[in-house]
Each structure stands twice: as C-alpha cells, then as structure tokens.
Amino acid sequence: MLTTAVSTSAVSTAATSTAAGAISMTTTAGIPEYGVLAVIGLIAFLSAKEILSACSKWNHSISSLLDISILPLLVSFAAIVVYKVVEIV
C-alpha cells in the first residue's frame, strides 16, 4: 500500500512539472506589455511640444528637452508597430 502511494505522487509531480515547462515556453516578448504607456507618453509629449511652441516662453532649450524625450518613445513606437505586424504575419 505504501509503495503505490509513493509511485502515484511521483507520477503527478512529473506531470505538473511538464505542464509548467510548456506554459513558460509560450510567453511573449516584453515589447507589448508596456507599449500602451509608451504610446500615451509619445502622444503627451507631441501634444506638449505643439502647444508650447505657440507660447511666448518657447525657446531652444525647451525644444531640445522635448526632442530628447520624444526620440526614444518614437523608436519604441516603431518597434511596437514592427512587432505587431510580424505577429500578424
């Protein structure tokens, strides 16, 4: 009786570890997880640049500050678009 209980638990443990391994292999890359935040940030910075450019306090340092913020988000947006297109194809 004791040997059958041990062998049954060993089989169920092996089945659980195999199922867990299969689940971890189907995870996606990290790009789309926070892609919405990157797109929202890009829209916010582009809007701020457009609105502030009409202000009388607009100068070169504000423009370069916003450009430095927009460029990485633009690269991230391009990577998200490429990832989504490749995912569909």
Helix-strand layout with pairing:
Blueprint (H helix, E strand, L loop, with lengths): L1 H23 L10 H18 L7 H29 L1
The number of helices is 3
**Low-confidence stretches at least 5 residues in length (pLDDT < 50)?**
4-10
Cα distance spanning the termini = 55 Å
Give the biggest sheet.
Answer: none
Could you say which overall geometry the principal axes of the C-alpha atoms support?
elongated
SSE pattern, N- to C-terminal: HHH
Query: What is the radius of gyration?
Result: 25 Å
Category from helices, strands and their pairing? mainly alpha
- Helical content, roughly? over 70%
- Any idea how many domains? 1
Strand content: under 5%
Q: Say how many strands there are.
A: 0
- Average predicted local confidence, pLDDT: 77
